[in-house]
Design goal:
Cadherins are calcium-dependent cell adhesion proteins. Keywords: Calcium, Cell adhesion, Cell membrane, Cleavage on pair of basic residues, Glycoprotein, Membrane, Metal-binding, Repeat, Signal, Transmembrane, Transmembrane helix. The structure is a single chain. With 785 residues, the protein is mainly β. Among the domains are: 92 residues, Immunoglobulin-like; 102 residues, Immunoglobulin-like (Sandwich); 104 residues, Immunoglobulin-like, CATH 2.60.40.60; 98 residues, Immunoglobulin-like (Sandwich); 113 residues, Immunoglobulin-like (Sandwich), CATH 2.60.40.60. It contains seven helices and 42 strands. The strands form twelve sheets. Strands 35, 37, 40, 41 and 42 form a five-stranded mixed beta sheet that branches.
Length: 785
Amino acid sequence: MKLGKVEFCHFLQILALFLCLSGMNQAEFSRSRSKPYFQSGRTRIKRSWVWNQFFVLEEYMGTDPLYVGKLHSDVDKGDGSIKYILSGEGASSIFIIDENTGDIHATKRLDREEQAYYTLRAQALDRLTNKPVEPESEFVIKIQDINDNEPKFLDGPYTAGVPEMSPVGTSVVQVTATDADDPTYGNSARVVYSILQGQPYFSVEPKTGVIKTALPNMDREAKDQYLLVIQAKDMVGQNGGLSGTTSVTVTLTDVNDNPPRFPRRSYQYNVPESLPVASVVARIKAADADVGPNAEMEYKIVDGDGLGVFKISVDKDTQEGIITIQKELDFEAKTSYTLRIEAANMHVDPRFLSLGPFSDMTTVKIIVEDVDEPPVFTSRLYSMVVSEAAKVGTIIGTVAAHDPDASNSPVRYSIDRNTDLERYFNIDANSGVITTAKSLDRETNAVHNITVLAMESQNPAQIGRGYVAITILDINDNAPEFAMEYETTVCENAQAGQVIQKISAIDKDDPPNGHQFYFSLTTEAANNHNFTLQDNKDNTATVLTRRNGFRRQEQSVFYLPIFIVDSGSPSLSSTNTLTIRVCDCDADGIAQSCNAEAYILPAGLSTGALIAILACVLTLLVLVLLIVTMRRRKKEPLIFDEERDIRENIVRYDDEGGGEEDTEAFDMAALRNLNIIRDTKTRRDVTPEIQFLSRPTFKSIPDNVIFREFIWERLKEADMDPCAPPYDSLQTYAFEGNGSVAESLSSLDSISSNSDQNYDYLSDWGPRFKRLADMYGTGPECLYS
């Protein structure tokens, strides 16, 4: 049988190891069972027992147990009187011993990577007494390693990055493979690295696994990612060694090695002159093959005649240059602008300055287009003044506007009435002169803000707006008056010269130098004997008493007219009446009671008590009226109907009636006939609002359906009919159905319907129907003809 190259190598390794072990088996280990003793001339050590040193190869694949070694005691004479036993790790389950010979075998496949050695204990026993003849001894069985594990990259696959344009030998990443075999024995765990894919761009250090660049000037813009395959092989890379692989993804990171470049040398844009300030005119962009911060750039206007009219900024997201307007454009003043714009990288790498300047220039021409513009006022805001005494038609001021276009169309003026709702002002449509249209009042509105519209006569849609602030100048047209409604009291025990009130005045006018008021009593009140007035010369006055003591029984209220004059030109005056009440005061002069009625009705009831009594009487009257009304409503029936509906009412009669022959008392046909429509009942306490349509007649259908539809119709009518009392009531119906094979047998129905049907056949139905045959038969013994 021929062996392959790999199998042959393994065989040689096992053979060499076996030869080494066979030489080691000659060494003997001895153990003293007692202390050694010495005799003159020589020393003798008593030997206990001997066995071989044990090593076992892992991964044994044979069918027979693997021989490990032999245990032997010098007490054993080979006569079978000694037996050997084994204990410890794997005893009996993995390792077995021949109790007669002491041979040890392994019964299972062993793996050094799972357990490298086993510790066991051996003992020799007397077979007859089962007593130990030697002390128990411990030994170790070591598992000998073979190359049965390939190297593994536990951290793979790997990803790494290296800057583009890096020099040769730049370290990228280090890969590491581990081998589970014994690193202290042979070359089974000695790994070397090699690159299977990724050459000639990268290389790997065989011993360390460090990946490095192998080519200079690798350009990210040409290719930005590489996939490498790295191999790790044990046995120092020799033939027969095991290997493992992993992948490494290397990404070239960007550096600023590309300057910005404009796709075009010049650009042209047209913009209307009416474009508002801060509007975007154009967007331009310089191309840069780099990415991220290396592609960030700034734009600036370096030359041209639009430096103060336009500005350029950068969009941080798109790296575009945004040209916007800084000032209003005017086609009549300038029709075009030329800008020289530069784009430059913000982060320049000095290593790549040799590649050229990292900036570029372009020219932008902006053409201003003419548009029909609205009229423009000579001023954004006009300030005017007018006296509130101005007569209607007084000229206040003039506004002016013109058409800025080359056509210079005439302008007509008007006032935006939304800003002059009361129409206080007018404007001349041609001249722009503003005049008063109504009398003005500064106290009502001191400043009027109006908007003046200027329209082109040739194009009324073009409207310009001007703003006018009209201030109303004050005149003395309001007389002074009390600053507030005073509640003045005087005590009955007041002394002469006592201050009872301090008053002040207000004036709606607004004189330039402020108000100055003068207070005095009117001519009629100047000589009264009760009160006097003192002007304090500070726009206030003081009211004082002229005599001692006041009595409420004599006079409870005094009216003091006060004359107030302002300092306007011409001055205005007014007479204001101060009401003074006489009150009963305590020792501190605080008013307690100011009602004269307390003295007039000292023995009677107070006003509060009278009001309470009157309220009680009115409440009782209301309750009586409510009770009477409710009783009257209870006596009236809710439904007025000449014929009571016997299906929904309990009717009591005091007579016995005529038995079955008495069919005149009630009309029972309505209980069974679906085709009879009841009259709509009217409630006295509810106004009918819904009119019901008559129900359709029923066709001949099964009785169960008829009953269901009958009850459903009655239930629906009871739920929806606002005229049926009460809403929560028991609805009782007596309905036999229709469509019976034997037709109706009711005598009541026969009588009420005046039926001419022949009932002679009832005589043939037997004695049970004899009574019916006598009632409905046509013979001489018939009860009815």
